[in-house]
Amino acid sequence: MRKVVSSGQPTIKEIAKRLNISVSTVSRALHDHHSIGLRTKARVQQLAAELGYERNQTAIFFQQGKTFTIGILLPELSEAFFSSAISGIEDTAYSNNYTVLLGQSHDDEAREKQIIQSMKQHRVDGCIVSIGKNTRNYEHFEMLRQAKIPVVFFDRIPDLPNIHSVSCNLESGTVQAVDFLLKKGHRVIGMINGPEQLVASGERAAGYMRALHKHRLKYDPELIVNADLTAAGTAEAMKHLLSLKRKVTAVVTFNDYVAMDAVQYALKQKLEINKDITFVSYANTPVSSYTAYPPAASVEQFPYEQGQAATNMLLSILNGDHDFNDYQQLIMESQLVLHT
Amino acid sequence: MRKVVSSGQPTIKEIAKRLNISVSTVSRALHDHHSIGLRTKARVQQLAAELGYERNQTAIFFQQGKTFTIGILLPELSEAFFSSAISGIEDTAYSNNYTVLLGQSHDDEAREKQIIQSMKQHRVDGCIVSIGKNTRNYEHFEMLRQAKIPVVFFDRIPDLPNIHSVSCNLESGTVQAVDFLLKKGHRVIGMINGPEQLVASGERAAGYMRALHKHRLKYDPELIVNADLTAAGTAEAMKHLLSLKRKVTAVVTFNDYVAMDAVQYALKQKLEINKDITFVSYANTPVSSYTAYPPAASVEQFPYEQGQAATNMLLSILNGDHDFNDYQQLIMESQLVLHT
DNA sequence: GTTAACCACGCAAGCGTTTGCGTAATTGGC
DNA sequence: GCCAATTACGCAAACGCTTGCGTGGTTAAC
Fold first, then answer.
1. Which nucleotide lies nearest residue B62, CA to C1'?
2. Minimal CA–CA distance to B173: which of B300, B261, B320, B74?
3. What is the per-residue pLDDT across A165-221, written as a single tens digit (0 to 9) for each?
4. What top-level class would CATH report for the domain B67-168+303-329?
5. CATH superfamily of B169-300
């Protein structure tokens, strides 16, 4: 006894039977194929409309081996930076008739792997991913490569050869940030950086050093501390910086959230913000404009635009606009935004 | 000349050929079917592992007429309230082996329709949607009903009979909010409400009136104004409220963003926040804790939990735990959170 | 020794669509 | 009036997988 799954949705076969023609003719008529007569075309299209026919995408996906779906894997959907990025990705995917499959890793490597696995099984055409901050092992991305599913990394990019990526040039933004502080007279500038293995952390550190070098100042390794981006980690980092002999008067923090946490810590230590200590950070989160003690400046990373760019890159790869081995890395310019 | 789409991915057929057994045996072996001998099971599973076999989900989706995918349609992915909700939805979908297809309407009715259409074509098993604030026409949801695709509405719920929904009891939260203001001595309390057709707006208004009634105060219709949630609309609403003869000393705003905009307007009018005028709002956006002039209190709506609840409801419907005509509406309690 | 039960597997249909190829019938050129 | 091109359509395979049914072979019960 066959289970009837039909759900009433009319199929191409239905139309064919009613019109007494073959399914192939119906299919072609629906696609406006030139080899179908005008009369039959019209009849088919009219009946299709009447029946409320809708192509069964799952059948087409299966048949074509293409899903017009892109998978997007992010650490945390609710973080402002990433949710802006999602927004940019969805917008450009949508206008190119692609849909978006979503997954969040919560910075958990195991979950990251499972999601990638799931996306692979779903046969997404490509992926856009920002890796978790604890991810050390990249074999799941290697599997995607073997399955010939292209992936564009963005923002949090793994340290791997031969990948596509979109990111912001944080080094130049950091130079701008440190320049800004130096011009305001600060000489002992701390930095609360992120986990060491993130490329983004390396870029921040590099920018920091380049700016110092430009001004012929010497670099004190004690001033850069790698934290884990939690409130507790930030507090500890601040504690370290404030314990140094040379008085730290400004701190560059990994992002606006870290900045806010750092501000909280500083306030507890009875420091006056923008007087005893000045903060500069990254992300330029919109809310910081409403904030009591916003960082004096923030490096805008254009998440929405990064999302757009990553999607466009992925789509052009899917369209076969490039050689398979032509790995692209788009680096957007970040920009320091003053909040004074 | 047949195009080779294979992409090298091994199929069930491959395994069958190599082992000289039938595809059905392989399929059953992979599913641990009892009617397959232990020896063959082992051989199949080992070879599958060696080859890196992975089931082709698109084929299964097609064959089973089920996609294990839920569509989620929201006005704006980057809004904090919704991105928390997404997070909750994705988490519970993930732990039930469902995946999530994403779309944002940008509060545009036409786009909302297109996305629903697209999800229908993608044959999602069900949908979770929060409607756009301008949506007046609900025929696209009627189409989903006809296609027997269940949909759970949440937060922004249309005024339709026979729907599933998850929402927060804003009326009680509003009563708490107005009570709070009344106890602080405010007697002329304005309200910047949302678009009239939103159920959420009605609930806020009802709560407002109920609180007044409880305290035997009479209700002045001039004090409630329906705005469009833009900064400009909020400014206009504030202008109206401040122009009234009776001096408004407190305002309940539709959400934290409206509150922030209202605060900005009040500051421009040289009003002192929490002295000349006090704000109470909804959403309890985390950032408002960092904010310069946060609302004195905010009604927490638990977006993450709402997302979880909506997903659980949808999954239980998909599991056939209910009659088809057993429409459920879950109403969660909101809770006033003081920021003092 | 017959029947029944079970075990281990193969056959083949079917899900809805696309598409290469074949085949009539009509048209046009000379 | 013959060949070629064009028009209008049908046939059937293929995509990968699941599953109802059938079929030998072995075992157990009476």
1. C15
2. B300
3. 999 889 999 999 999 999 999 999 999 999 987 788 999 999 999 999 999 999 999
4. alpha beta
5. Response regulator (3.40.50.2300)
